[in-house]
Amino acid sequence: MTGWGSLSYAFGPLLAFGVVGVIVLLLRWAFAHGTSLVERRPEAGSPEEYGLLVRVAAPRTFVEAEVMRRHLEDAGLRATLAPTTQGPAVMVFPDDVKNARLVLRSAGHEPG
């Protein structure tokens, strides 16, 4: 058996501190705020809080809003369904507002 000499008494505590340090780093990473790998629920804001997007329709339900959004995307327009404080809203970029309202009217929807 080979002896470790005078350092053998320090090996156990150093190993324990190293393991505890690794566990601390893993826990800090796992419970850190703002770096979650899970997507957050969307927060509802007023229709004016969506940057460049302009509301073209304000349907009563999210199902109606999704149908409208799909009609717009089928017509080649980029559209977004946004949960606002005033209910669901179908939003497009300012350059597409006129065309989006025409598409919604032709599909039998009431643009708002």
Q: Strand order across the biggest sheet?
A: 1-3-2
Biggest sheet architecture:
3 strands, antiparallel
Rg result: 28 Å
Give the helix level as a range of percent: 40-55%
Termini separation comes to: 86 Å
- Percentage of residues in DSSP E strands: 5-15%
Low-confidence stretches: none
Shape: rod-shaped
Category by helix and strand content: alpha+beta
Number of separate helices: 3
Mean of pLDDT: 84
Order of helices and strands: HEHEEH
Number of strands: 3
What do you see in this structure?
The protein is an alpha+beta fold and 112 residues long. Helix content is 41%, strand content 14%. A hairpin with a 2-residue loop joins strand 2 and strand 3. The longest helix has 23 residues. The model has no long low-confidence stretch (mean pLDDT 84).
Short description:
With about 110 residues, this protein is an alpha+beta fold. About 40% of the residues lie in helices and about 15% in strands.
